[in-house]
Amino acid sequence: MLVLLPAAHTAFAGAGSVEYRVAWDNADSRYHVYMRPTTAPSPDLSMTGQVTLRVPHATGTSKFTVTDIKPKAGTTWSLSSEVFGPSEDKAIDYLSFSFMPIDVRAFAFKAGVEQEAFSFKNTGPCMGSVALMNNNTDPFNQPPDAPNNSAGTNPGNQFANAGWGATDDNDYSGNYGTAAECGGTTIINTAPVANKDTATTSADKAVTIDVLKNDSDADGDMLVIASFTQGSKGSVKQSGNSLIYTPTADATGTDTFTYTIADPDGAKSTGTISVTLTTVTPPPEELVAQTDSFNVQATTGGITLDVLANDTIPAGQSVTLTVVDAPKHGTATVVNNKIVFIPTAGYSGTDTLTYRITDAAGKQTEAGITLTIKAATPPTDTCAAPPANPVDNKAYYRINWSATDQRYHVYMYASSVPSPNNLTSAQVTLKAPIGKDAAAFTPTDVQSAFTGLSWSNNSSVHAPTEDTAASYLSFTPAISNAKAMPWQAGTEIEVFSFANKGACLGSVSLLENATDAFNQPAAAPNNSVGTNPGNSLVNLGWGSMDTDNYAGNYGCPATCSTDTTSKDSDADGLTDAEEATLGTNPNSNDTDGDSILDKEEIGSTLSKALDTDGDGVINALDKDDDNDGIPTSAEKGDANNNSKPDYLEKPTTPTVKSVAVPTLTQWAQLLLSFLLGAVALRKYGRLGK
Question: How far apart are CA 408 and CA 473, in angstroms?
């Protein structure tokens, strides 16, 4: 006996495969499995094999039962797996036989010569054809290379001979011949019987019906629900071996539907299900106030809250609405059984209140209301909207006028960040209304938004022949840091701002390279003064020195205004323009939060804002105005009753008078005088005796 145990992936020269066939022999009433090689393997070393048969599914005594396996001499074949009626094909049982060699050369294959591998008997009745599995098409073996079936098995036909390749290759190539047709008596299947079912439920409740519980099958076969219909007053769905009937709302009376059962051989029977629908008597309604929540916008007008909309009020009853606990940040009054809420001016945040409803019989119920008060939304500034459909690696320009600081501000927008960020040149050209003499538009106090770039007005052309009603003003930067522009993808950045020394004559816009007569032709202008006024920008992170990364303008023309005295956003007595000059917050009447209004801390002279401690920080921005270590908020009193609050008084050090200390000479003179005095006193005393 020769047994070889090859290592994984051991391979010999050669190519070939083996085919399988199954046949029935009436002479011995046995099934025989044959093999036929396409070539003779060299060396002929058969290692492993598997044969899987498809037999008719049956249960009980009708089941296909393998016995008395007779293998070819020098081999062993065993029934290694049985899977009965899997979900992939419930009409089939899968039987797998495994081969292990006693002698790896036992088959002694010859090209094209068939030989028997093994045979066996079936002790069950003849139920029909027996066939070999087709690896590629059988649903129980999908996908063929790594099956993922319902039983978790690997049923595919397989054979490995080292003479045909690696030992872990599958040298099985297919089947030949026809299915094996057994002889003998065929068992006649008896169809199942589906019996009538009944159920009772109400219109608001689904009911589960175990329809198979009272059904029968003479053969003892396992039954399944093959199909079912829908009711006219409700819907039906399957859950395992049961059907769930859900009535429609308010349905009453009787509803019927059918279902069909089947046994493993496909025999079917249909039964009827009758459902009685009882009337649902709703419980009496109770008066119930439900919790409410509202999101409201801060507004000077009243906001109507329909708090009764979600409350339970019995039909036909009238109720009275009252406010029990008032809100803390506004007022709440009842108008036509609705609550009108007016928030405190300037407040945003949350607030709560409680209301009560009372019916005619005096029954009461209460509920709370939570209000989320959102700050009033300012009108959308469409002029600050980003450019539509911006192109990557390009910059867009915008100009804006600020009434607060009386300056023009220039912005740039990019949808992508240059890499590396290396600005080499830029030009922004504005078009302003023409003015004469002192009224002429004259940029002054140009301020760059960040260090590393110093913008200046390098060219001003007034009333050229191309447009005698306009002044063209060009600005360029002196670049000391090519990375200074803090580009942010999808966000505009301010680049520089300036004031106009001339008069406010109208709107200022950015030059349109493609259409402005003063910039034609756009690629190489040939205007009346020989300038190149077009907007431009070159950043090596977006291209080369020859690439103009300016794409266009967005926003609206900048319209100046001279009325800055009337706007006082925080109502503290200082205009927004004045607060912009002082550095205080125009939207807060107490910028430093010390409980002293900005106007009071500034003093009577705007140009000489109070700075009590002289530290360079005006009182309106200083939390300790007199720098005595005590916060201003704690010094609003007048400790010394001099009609001046303590926070406006500098701390003083009490005056300490100096005391003269005698010198050594003076001490000697004092001592001598003391001694002479003592002697004289003694002498005087003696003379008196």
Answer: 13
Give the neighbor-by-neighbor strand order of the sheet with 172-175: 66-71, 115-122, 30-37, 18-25, 172-175
DSSP 297-312: E--SS-EEE-GGGGSB
Q: Residue 118, Cβ neighbours under 10 Å: how many? A: 20
Domain ranges in the chain? 18-181, 196-278, 292-374, 395-520+534-559, 566-641
Q: Check pLDDT > 60 for residue 680.
A: no
More confident residue, 100 or 593: 100
DSSP 154: -
Structure tokens, 147? 């099956």
CB count in 10 Å sphere of residue 558: 21
Six-digit token string for 190: 């008896």
Task: Using alpha carbons, select from 373, 526, 502 the residue that is nearest to residue 442.
Answer: 502
Taking the C-alpha atoms of residue 66 and residue 655, their distance in angstroms, rounded to an integer, is: 123
DSSP 66-86: EEEEEEPTTEEEEEEEEEES-
The owner of tokens 């690896």 is: 135
Two structure tokens written together for 465:
């022949």
CATH superfamily ID and name for 292-374: Immunoglobulins (2.60.40.10)
Quick: pLDDT tens for 483-520: 999 999 999 999 999 999 999 999 999 999 999 999 99
pLDDT tens digits along 269-279? 999 999 999 98
pLDDT, average across residues 75-101: 96
| CA–CA dist 621, 624 (Å, integer) | 9
CB 353 within 8 A of CB 326: yes
Query: Comparing 196-278 with 292-374, is the CATH topology the same?
Result: yes
Q: What's the whole-model pTM score?
A: 0.37
CA 317 to chain centre: 47
pLDDT of residue 377: 66
Q: Which two tokens stand for residue 508?
A: 């200022």
The pLDDT, as a whole number, for residue 250 is 86
pLDDT classification of 524: cutoffs 50, 70, 90: very high
- Sequence-distant (6+) residues with CB within 8 A of 514 are 522
Instruction: Kindly write down the DSSP assignment for every residue of 464-484, as one continuous string.
Output: -TT-TTEEEEEEEEEES-TT-
State the burial class of residue 255 (Cβ atoms within 10 Å of its Cβ: 0-12, 13-18, 19+): buried
443: preceding bond cis by omega (within 30 degrees): no
| Highest CATH level, class, for 196-278 | mainly beta
Distance from C-alpha of 128 to C-alpha of 36, rounded to nearest angstrom: 25
Distances (CA, A) of 594 to 620, 635, 649: 9, 10, 16
Longest dimension (CA), the chain: 182
Distance CA 601, CA 573 (A): 12
Which residue matches tokens 């034609």? 520
Pairing relationship of beta strands 234-239 and 349-359 according to DSSP bridges: unpaired
Contact between 326 and 344 (Cβ < 8 Å): no
Residue 684 has pLDDT above 50, yes or no: no
Give the mean pLDDT of 650-664.
55
| Beta bridge mates, 556 | none
